[in-house]
Amino acid sequence: MAADFRYFLVYKPFGTLCQFTREVPGHVTLRDSFPDLPDRVYPVGRLDQDSEGLLLITDDNKLKNRIISPASKVRKRYLAQVEGEVTDTAIGQLREGVVIRVRKKDFQTMPASVQLLDHKPGLPERDPPIRFRASIPTSWIGIGITEGKNRQVRRMCAKVGFPVLRLVRVAIGGLTLDGLMPGEIRETSLEHLARKIFH
Fold first, then answer.
1. Is 77 left (phi over 0), alpha (psi -120 to 50) or beta?
2. By C-alpha distance, which of 82, 113, 73 is closest to 97?
């Protein structure tokens, strides 16, 4: 009989480590933010401590490996608030791909889908809020990538001269944050995930 795997979509809050085990006193883990999750489940991919947004958590290793495999080309979409007024030149560079440093090596990113937003997106306020500086404007961009290098979106934006102040993953394939607030969980099914991610 097939194993009864479980699948959860969660909205990871800012400041939560993408792991269940606390290695440093004072760190906030997924277990702290989502105490109702069952044991022996793991995140599919990662969001760094300073990033927020959609995370898939499951005990289905086969699905996990399929999603994170570079061959699957599952697109992750982010909203990024960056420092400064983003230029068309920077948007073009991100779309074409840039060279970033990952693990002390140069890495050429694949072409990305990038849009400059003309208004602040309707996201929940971050807790704590970003540090506001009246003298420095900020911009919001939407960016979609199929890779998942460590802090990739942050490195890409910094490379073109616009450091990220806030980063929220809003979608994995066709899965979105719709209906979730920071710290909330929604259980789903393999059939729903397969339809949303791979079709």
1. beta
2. 113
66 within domain boundaries: yes
The count of structural domains within the chain is 2
Domain membership of residue 116 as a residue range: 75-172
118 and 191 co-located in one domain: no
Shared domain check, 86 and 61: no
Q: What are the tens digits of pLDDT across the range 58-115? A: 999 999 999 998 888 999 999 999 999 999 999 999 999 999 999 999 999 999 999 9
SS3 183: coil
Inside any domain, residue 2: no
* pLDDT confidence of residue 1: 38
CB count in 10 Å sphere of residue 140: 20
Q: Which of 36, 39, 48, 88 is catalytic?
A: 48
Residue 2 has pLDDT above 70, yes or no: no
Mean pLDDT of the chain: 94
Is 80 in contact with 121 (CB distance < 8 Å)? no
Q: What is the CATH classification number for the domain harbouring 26?
A: 3.30.70.580
48 included as an active-site residue: yes
State how far the Cα of 154 lies from the Cα of 137, in Å rounded to an integer: 18
CA-to-CA separations, 67 to 64, 151, 199, in angstroms, rounded:
5, 18, 13
